[in-house]
């Protein structure tokens, strides 16, 4: 069994210093629901770390601040339950809540963070399409300072992302929601919970006088990274909200997907799911934008 050191710094500066000092051999720990499992079953995937840097005690990673004019800053280690228990955040960012409330089960949600879900960077991660739909910006820190990356550019391949070994994700910034805004994340799994998405769709809309003003659609589990389908936003902008435009969105999602065959689904099955899930998520996002409610899952 390999010896691994553990530290729990109190400040951001300390954490940055530790990662700089230990380079690729140190690994941040948020909720640990991915990291602890990987340390046991597949440490090679995370470069056999020698030092675990627990970031949960650092204030910047625990920030959860929202106002209708400033938007939402979500610290990278905030666990899911704190997000969906916040009524103002739940109302403003419904797609985020859809994802936070279905990751794992209630015990996992007590620990798992959206930041950890993003940094783990699997194509099937449930929060990432919702983050893309909500037009999120990632705030990253490293020894040379801070930088911002649009969330759709964060993942670079399966379990890979733009972070350098000495960088950390500090927080996620959600812009204030527009008037007539709605969002939805749904996924398909063969059972009700505790499974990996065969496919997933995160959607947001802004409506204006019965038309789509803007639309963002992102898909899970159908490409090497979570996939923003820009063709849908381009095609639907200015179009009426009706069955024909929603069907067109589904068709474009199916066309954009480039999934693999595996034990959970074939290429054809996953492409079909992209069509169905996009149409359903889009319809639900429209309902929300019009002030209606949709079933939780
Ligand atoms: C039983 C079970 C069920 C699950 N169900 C789902 C599910 O339904 N949907 C789903 O998407 N996932 C699921 N997961 C996976 C996991 O719970 C999520 O990915 C979770 O959101 C990860 O967050 P965390 O805080 O636990 O991250 P951690 O495990 O702490 O970290 C994950 C990775 O990100 C890195 N990291 C963490 N924070 C930072 C940071 N701030 N900066 C840089 N790197 C960082 C870590 O080093 C590690 O490599 C499940 C896991 C389990 C065990």
Bound molecules: flavin-adenine dinucleotide
**Main beta sheet strand tally, sense and closure:** 5 strands, antiparallel
The share of residues in extended strands comes to: 15-25%
Q: Numbering strands along the chain, what is their spatial order in the largest sheet?
A: 4-5-10-6-7
Number of helices: 11
Structural class: alpha+beta
Low-confidence segments, given as residue ranges, are none
Distance between the termini: 42 Å
The total beta strand count reads: 14
User: What is the averaged pLDDT score?
Assistant: 95
User: Which range best describes the helical content: under 10%, 10-25%, 25-40%, 40-55%, 55-70% or over 70%?
Assistant: 25-40%
Rg, Å, rounded: 19 Å
What order do the SSEs take from the amino end to the carboxyl end, as H and E?
EHEHEEEHHHHHHEEEEEEEEEHHH
Shape: globular
Structure characterization notes:
This protein has eleven helices and 14 strands. Helix 5 packs antiparallel against helix 8, helix 9 runs antiparallel to helix 10 and helix 10 runs antiparallel to helix 11. It has a five-stranded antiparallel sheet with strand order 4-5-10-6-7. The chain has a four-stranded antiparallel sheet with strand order 11-12-13-14, with helices on both faces. With 297 residues, the chain is α+β, with helices and mostly antiparallel strands. Flavin-adenine dinucleotide binds next to strand 2, helix 2, helix 7 and strand 10.
